[in-house]
């Protein structure tokens, strides 16, 4: 139980990669605070599974893109658990479209959810970690940050910014025992990537060195490694879990 006694806050944890991360952390001994926007039934199912592992779990509903929500959630976690050892910024959305056809709302919502929300969440969590001189922060980026596809300009910009933010936070927080890294998944078998996989499977498979899609648990394993106490020396890095997609 590598994470015994620790508390992890996982945003966007009701399905897909977020769900897998929350469950993996719970299996390793972590109590879990889980945020979700609207998928109440799915979030409750995740919570039930985590509770079945003997871990404490609390659900927090809210739209993380609302600037007031990150601090409100962190206040709730502090009241319920008293600490946050691990933060996983996983919540994300896509609004894929060629830039010439994107609305301002498409651009703003993707940036608000995928970049500004993680920044505000780190801002809210960092004081708790600084006081204890310990913390692990993992931001979920995407292969689109370095190898975007057509129609992904808003998403690629947000995730590229998230990777730069990851490195900036590593510089700011390392002296207080807080390590900050990112994991950049490729095409993972989730609901979010259904459209990408259905419309461009031949092209994706051509670019993949590993000729298959990964399951969310593959990404979760990478996150657990970076988020664990055994990681004492890796910070400011972006770990690509993409089957070699960025090599093409």
TrEMBL record:
Domain Ketoreductase span(s) in chain numbering: 6-177
Region forming the signal peptide: none
Family: Belongs to the short-chain dehydrogenases/reductases (SDR) family.
Matching PANTHER family: 3-OXOACYL-(ACYL-CARRIER-PROTEIN) REDUCTASE, 3-OXOACYL-[ACYL-CARRIER-PROTEIN] REDUCTASE FABG
Protein name: 3-oxoacyl-ACP reductase FabG
